[in-house]
Design a protein that fits this description.
The chain is of the alpha/beta class. Helices cover about 15% and strands about 35% of the residues. It has helices at about 20-30, 80-85; strands at about 15-20, 35-40, 45-50, 50-60, 70-75, 90-95, 105-110, 115-120.
Length: about 130
């Protein structure tokens, strides 16, 4: 429900600034397995991330730079499988079991030090279970 001063928004993408665009491109494409969608070599690389996108842009290429802090939240079907595929040695911190109603999660850093939070997807209720 939205109030009269609230916007109805949905995340469509995230952009991160990189010193080493190629290293970032390898990490998001090879380590996280995101599909490259659009690229302007030396300027940016944009990846599909479900119904949103992650864009990596070379620092200093825009006239409106942002601060250097960012966190990306990525939902994965099974946290344990995602950690296994990415490599447990890359994980900075992890809560592999649900605690206090929170989903299992893990944090890793990309090559520029941005936090990537992996959240395990919520189980889907069988059809009709939530019907009144």
């Amino acid at each position: 429900m939205t109030g009269k001063n609230e916007l109805d928004v949905r995340l469509i993408g995230v952009e991160l600034y990189f010193d080493d665009l190629q290293q970032g491109k390898r990490f998001y494409g090879e380590t996280l397995g995101l599909d490259l969608w659009d690229e302007d070599p030396g300027h940016h690389a944009r990846f599909h991330a479900g119904q949103a996108f992650v864009c990596l842009e070379r620092k200093g290429s825009e006239s409106y730079p942002s601060r250097d802090k960012a966190v990306i939240f990525l939902e994965v079907p099974t946290l344990a499988e995602a950690v296994r595929r990415i490599g447990e040695e890359r994980i900075i911190e992890m809560k592999p079991h649900s605690e206090g109603g929170r989903r299992p999660w893990a944090v890793l850093h990309d090559p520029e030090g941005y936090n990537i939070v992996l959240l395990e997807a919520l189980p889907h209720a069988p059809a009709g279970e939530n019907a009144n």
